[in-house]
């Protein structure tokens, strides 16, 4: 039996699909709390180090925030692709030899 999903076409069967148990507001709220906690903790860690100017601290916060976003979102996507068998870091780097193909226009 197919579980109803929000994707089109609506009659598409998606085996293994499970709907979200939380609303989008709850998910965004949890994300903002985690990001805010990381930002405040980083700023508090940098504050006693008076060698950094405010601009340098804000730049550091920017890079920490971007890194956190990339690790969480891209890491989750990579785990999903590995689970689906579409991506394996070791296969990509160690076992697969590059295939040179000619592009035709």
Automatic annotation (TrEMBL):
The keyword Transmembrane applies. One of its GO terms (biological process) is sterol biosynthetic process. GO terms for cellular component: endoplasmic reticulum; membrane. The chain crosses the membrane at residues 28-47, 59-78. One of its GO terms (molecular function) is C-8 sterol isomerase activity. The keyword Transmembrane helix applies. Keywords: Membrane, Transmembrane, Transmembrane helix. This is Uncharacterized protein.
